[in-house]
Specification:
Structural class: alpha+beta
Distance between the termini: 30 Å
Low-confidence stretches: 155-173
Number of domains: 2
Radius of gyration: 44 Å
CATH class of the largest domain: Mainly Beta
Oligomer: single chain
CATH topology of the largest domain: Immunoglobulin-like
Order of helices and strands: HEEEEEEEEEHEHHHHHHH
Mean pLDDT: 77
Largest sheet: 6 strands, mixed
Helix content: 40-55%
Length: 325
């Protein structure tokens, strides 16, 4: 149950982070409200006959809140007219930066072999109720228009010559959904991040804190194997072991206590046997004599003092710990 709660917390945190980043990107794009940019533009044929329909295929990149509202250009170079019918708008995928690609197929018919100097068309955009540019500008590539070999005597019966007054009314638009927004990819990424974080936490479990008596045993063993030559240093280290043990085992402040304060704190412990108090009192008395009076101590006295401390440690281990051992 605890693991499930931990996973849920990490997933929630990852969702908040991802949502915050996406929200920043999308708000920034909305705030800038920039004009769509042209990515590519090409004709289906580079050379056409006068009056022959040709399609301009172009891709524009627009902010998430802008879209082309029609394939009928609001502006065309001189010598080109919009189609009677056709045209297609393909809606691309919304990316994580807040932009979407739109692909437009714009049927156009050349009406002159000499195109105007301005090779730019403009496609209308949806209204945003803000002061912004209402069209997307597209620079069209070069197009070669040649005259037909034979001009028909009755053009209306052969090629449906365009009528400028009916262009907009007869144009049809087809908007296709290409692919939806990749929500599943975002969810999968969030879950993957949460699982990675959880795996790292499980692999980096904190090491168990050793028991005070285990720490004291190790310190006494080391002191027994590596005794200092100076008796005063030996007893200083021995009393430090005692202070650390009593501080951690009985939660009394023994680290910075003097010898008399330590004895009073140990004597106040309710569950401590009198013989244990006697052992500690004897060791501290000998240690003070050696440290302050510079009285020499033989090896037997030092080993006896260490044995007293070891006995005190072993006898004050909790009963449940002894049973588990």
């Amino acid at each position: 149950m605890k693991t499930i709660k931990t996973i849920a917390k990490f997933i929630a945190l990852a969702l908040v982070l991802v949502t915050s980043v996406l929200g920043y990107f999308f708000f920034s794009v909305w705030q800038k409200n920039e004009r769509p940019t042209e990515i590519s533009a090409e004709w289906t044929k580079d050379t056409v006959t006068l009056g022959e329909p040709v399609t301009l295929r172009t891709t524009i990149r627009a902010a998430w809140h802008r879209r082309p509202s029609s394939v009928v250009p609001t502006r065309l170079p001189e010598g080109l007219v919009a189609p009677l019918s056709g045209g297609k708008i393909t809606k691309g995928t919304l990316d994580l930066t807040g932009h979407r690609d739109w692909t437009l197929e714009i049927p156009i018919v050349p009406t002159s072999t000499e195109l105007g100097a301005s090779q730019l068309i403009e496609i209308p955009l949806n209204s945003t109720r803000r002061r912004s540019v209402g069209t997307a500008a597209i620079a069209i590539p070069a197009l070669t228009v040649i005259s037909p070999e034979n001009i028909p005597t009755d053009p209306l019966s052969h090629a449906k010559v365009l009528r400028p007054d009916s262009v907009i009314a007869e144009t049809t638009n087809l908007i296709e959904e290409e692919t939806p927004f990749p929500w599943m990819m975002i969810v999968a990424a969030v879950v993957a991040i949460a699982l990675v974080v959880l795996a790292i936490r499980l692999l980096r479990k904190p090491k168990p804190v050793p028991h005070p008596w285990d720490t004291a045993r190790e310190a006494l063993d080391y002191l027994a194997k590596n005794p200092p030559k100076e008796p005063s240093i030996y007893y200083l280290q021995l009393t430090d072991i005692l202070k650390r043990y009593t501080t951690e085992r009985f939660t009394i402040s023994g680290d910075s206590a003097s010898a008399s304060e330590l004895l009073r704190s140990i004597a106040a412990l309710p569950d401590l046997a009198p013989e244990h108090r006697q052992l500690i009192s004897e060791v501290i008395r000998i240690a003070n004599v050696v440290k302050f009076a510079q009285t020499p101590a033989d090896e037997g006295s030092r080993m006896g003092a260490l044995a007293h401390i070891r006995t005190f440690v072993e006898c004050t281990i909790p009963i449940e710990e002894e049973a588990n051992a």
